[in-house]
Design brief:
The chain is α/β, with parallel strands linked by helices. It has seven helices and eight strands; from the N terminus they run αβββαβαββαβαβαα.
Length: 194
């Protein structure tokens, strides 16, 4: 009788847990540029391709069924900033990470930059997201900055714009354009999503 009660209790617990509603997270990865807009182009490498490759890797690496990762674009398609902001706001995500690659005339300049805006209505949560991104990277060549870029002001959810490195810097370019480097960047970003 005791074993039967244990079995019934265990079965009840299993069924209860199976039907418990687990909160699902929706994360948007904004894939910059696309279509006729290449973004930064250096030595034939385009920002639009790099952003899409890394976004796809983040999505592929995600094994958590309670996290839905949605890309603003999953092909070489152009969406205006307004279209991207509208799409993101319609999705009502928990947070947004916008992927970019940087460029400058100074070939020695390197590192990552994370941008947030005080004009974002979720500026505190955006700041927390920026800090989580900051700590997710293995290197310390990362800065958090403020800017009033269109998406940062017009997306109504926590958002950080991430410049993944400088295409104009040889070391950064190696990370941005190789399978190994892109996978490492994707894994770092995925740590924040989990």
């Amino acid at each position: 009788m005791r074993n039967l009660l244990k079995f019934i209790g265990l079965a009840f617990l299993t069924i209860t847990l199976a039907f418990t509603n687990v909160d699902k997270k929706t994360i948007v990865i904004d894939v910059s540029h696309g279509g006729h807009d290449n973004g930064t182009t250096v030595h034939g490498f385009t920002e639009k391709e790099i952003a899409l490759n890394i976004a796809n890797k983040i999505k592929q690496l995600n094994k958590n069924s309670n996290i839905e990762i949605i890309l603003t674009r999953d092909s070489d398609k152009f969406l205006s900033l307004n279209e991207r902001a509208e799409k993101i706001n319609t999705l009502k995500p928990d947070f947004v990470i916008s992927l970019h690659a940087n460029a400058t005339d100074n070939i020695d300049q390197s590192g990552k930059e994370i941008f947030v805006s005080d004009k974002n209505i979720q500026k505190e949560k955006s700041g927390n997201l920026a800090l989580e991104l900051f700590y997710s990277f293995n290197d310390r060549n990362v800065e958090i900055k403020k800017a009033d870029f269109y998406l940062l002001k017009n997306v109504e959810y926590p958002i950080a714009l991430l410049e993944l490195g400088y295409l104009t810097n040889e070391n950064d370019r190696e990370i941005l354009t190789t399978e190994k480097g892109q996978s490492e960047l994707a894994e770092s970003i995925l740590k924040v999503i989990k």
